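Lab notebook, design round three. We kept the backbone fixed and only want residue identities now. Task for the bench partner: fill in a sequence for the structure below.
Input structure tokens:
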């Protein structure tokens, strides 16, 4: 099969294409009444909130999220805090500077599964990535055009999980030249560690790609369809029974008292943000950049909306436009007046 349209995006995706074809065929022969009723997509997120250390390396702000108690090194302390994944995502996108990032990490805890240290530059890259995925439209357009230049394509590559992407190539915690020199000396002195270092780097790259794919959709093993009691009284009644090993809720309550829910299980902030994006996407919520304030806003029933807050941003954009028009009109009038003052050659002749 030829892959001329998407030179870098298709080769490893055949199995997915085959699965999609098979599913579409099976759908055509679906017996009636074999559908799960509309389900809410829910993201229960229990954040692990520790302590955040802030320090600078060169010009870069670095944050280390740790559970150790300062001054009592072997001791650990952290708080498990249930957070609303959608609110976490919105707050994350609203962080404007490094001190905002510090506050965010202090309240939301473990940020990434890759490392307990994150730089302000990396934080901003993740904001940009989140924003682009959430907005969807520009990515869809790059994919449909097969446009391989620019950051949209790098985001698409990252989302597949099959390719290296340069999107996140920013300064990781900067390594000082002294440390780099030391590492090179160690490699020369103990050549046997080189394969181990390589293996470590490969493992790290694999983990990075796994995390990126969460933003296309959480992997199947972190999602489940659960039966949830419709009424709180039923939930309260079965909870003690469920605590006993082996109890299954579908045998404790009649089917009509239960409703299905699609549940995503994140375990770090980035997973929770990805899950919130997926929940919106699967429920058909679209996002767009406000033409006035540049914030992302959910597009409601009114599909042609261009401003986040119709009243404020639309009015502000409107008055900015009319002020500009007024300014231009005045300048034009002045210019015309000036022109009239200068006698033209023809006027002189008369
Ligand atoms: Zn706005």
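Proposed sequence:
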């Amino acid at each position: 099969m030829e892959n001329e349209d998407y030179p870098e995006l298709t080769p490893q995706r055949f199995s997915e294409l085959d699965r999609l074809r098979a599913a579409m065929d099976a759908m055509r022969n679906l017996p009636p009444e074999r559908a799960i009723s509309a389900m809410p997509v829910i993201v229960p997120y229990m954040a692990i909130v520790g302590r955040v250390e802030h320090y600078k390396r060169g010009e870069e702000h670095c944050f280390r999220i740790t559970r150790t108690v300062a001054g009592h090194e072997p001791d650990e302390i952290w708080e498990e805090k249930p957070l609303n994944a959608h609110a976490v995502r919105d707050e994350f996108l609203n962080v404007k500077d490094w001190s905002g990032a510090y506050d965010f990490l202090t309240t939301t805890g473990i940020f990434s599964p890759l490392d307990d240290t994150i730089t302000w530059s990396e934080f901003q890259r993740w904001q940009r990535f989140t924003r682009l995925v959430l907005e969807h439209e520009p990515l869809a357009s790059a994919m449909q055009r097969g446009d391989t230049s620019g950051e949209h394509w790098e985001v698409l590559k990252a989302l597949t999980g099959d390719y290296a992407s340069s999107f996140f190539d920013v300064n990781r915690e900067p390594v000082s030249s002294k440390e780099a020199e030391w590492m090179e000396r160690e490699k020369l002195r103990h050549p046997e560690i080189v394969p181990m270092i390589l293996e470590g780097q490969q493992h790290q790259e694999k983990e990075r790609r796994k995390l990126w794919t969460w933003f296309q959709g959480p992997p199947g093993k972190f999602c489940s369809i659960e039966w949830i009691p419709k009424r709180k009284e039923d939930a309260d009644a079965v909870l003690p029974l469920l605590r006993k090993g082996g109890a299954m809720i579908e045998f404790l309550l009649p089917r009509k008292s239960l409703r299905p829910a699609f549940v995503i299980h994140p375990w770090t902030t980035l997973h929770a943000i990805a899950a919130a994006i997926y929940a919106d996407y699967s429920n058909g919520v679209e996002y767009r950049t406000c033409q006035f304030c540049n914030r992302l806003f959910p597009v409601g029933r009114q599909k042609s909306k261009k401003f986040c807050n119709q009243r404020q941003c639309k009015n502000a954009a409107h008055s900015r436009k009319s002020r500009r028009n007024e300014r231009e009109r005045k300048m034009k009038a002045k210019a015309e007046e000036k022109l009239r003052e200068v006698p033209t050659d023809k006027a002189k002749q008369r």
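Keep this in mind before ordering anything: The chain has a mean pLDDT of 86.
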